[in-house]
Amino acid sequence: MFVTVISVLAAVVASYMIFRIGMSIFRILATPLPEPPPAGELRKVKLNYQCSLCGSEVRMTVAPAEDPEPPRHCMAEMDLVSEE
């Protein structure tokens, strides 16, 4: 008898937790994406560039576009090393 009560109580608690997790996932999925910032406003990016001629490295953290043009160094465009 006591084992049955514990089993039912555990099932009720587990179903409540599954319900809460499912509802939070639906809430996250139902939230609309924020609008992109207006043109000309800086956006956060994490790009690392390296000069192929001298080896200098640059980390770009903000840019006017999400896919900015690579910076120039030693009169040549730098190579994209990694996107974090």
Briefly, what is this?
The protein is of the alpha+beta class.
Return residue spans where pLDDT drops below 50 for at least 5 consecutive residues: none
Overall structural class, as computed from helix and strand content, comes to alpha+beta
Q: How many separate domains make up the residues?
A: 2
Compute the gyration radius: what is it? 26 Å
Provide the spatial order of strands within the biggest beta sheet.
2-1-5
| Helical run tally | 1
Tell me the helix content: 25-40%
Distance between the termini: 57 Å
Explain how this protein is built.
By secondary structure, the protein is α+β, with helices and mostly antiparallel strands. The protein has two domains: about 1-30; about 45-84, no CATH class. About 35% of the residues lie in helices and about 30% in strands. It has one helix at about 1-30, and strands at about 45-50, 55-65, 70-75, 75, 80-84. The strands form two sheets. Strands 2-1-5 form a three-stranded antiparallel β-sheet, with no helix packed on it. Strands 3-4 form a two-stranded antiparallel sheet. It is elongated. The N and C termini lie far apart (about 55 Å).
